[in-house]
Amino acid sequence: MGKLTKRLTDHPCVGLDTCVLIYHIERHPTYFSLTQELLASIEAGRLEAVASILTLMEVTVRPWQLHRSDVVQDYEEILTHFPHLTLVDVNRDIAGQAARLRAQYRLRVADALHVATAMIHGATAFITNDRQLTQLQETLQIVLLEDCLTSL
After folding, report:
1. Where are the alpha helices (DSSP H) in 31-146?
2. Considering the entire predicted model, what is its pTM?
């Protein structure tokens, strides 16, 4: 069990920031082993995960720029059918929570929507690499991938 998995043992549901999936898709040399560990835990059902539908938009920008609709379709298939990962549409409750987070913490719109999605859907931890989000620690445990590298 890696450091990331150990940090998440008390969290039955976690929120995922888009960077987690981008690092995995791109096989990021620094973070791929962590994302592989995390996604394997989710796929096996040891962890439930939630992500905003914004994630789908964000991971498909580059394939659209490259005119690779086949890759876009693959990403859509993978994300919408990944076991134990729920992609959530933005609704009124999420928008309201995101507005409160933006007002209190001065978050960017996308960050506020990602975190609000996680909170509204019962996540008790949010996995990211965005240090700005650590200011939310009193509301939601923020787990930075960078902080989990030391045990690899």
Report:
1. 32-43, 54-65, 69-81, 92-105, 109-120
2. 0.93
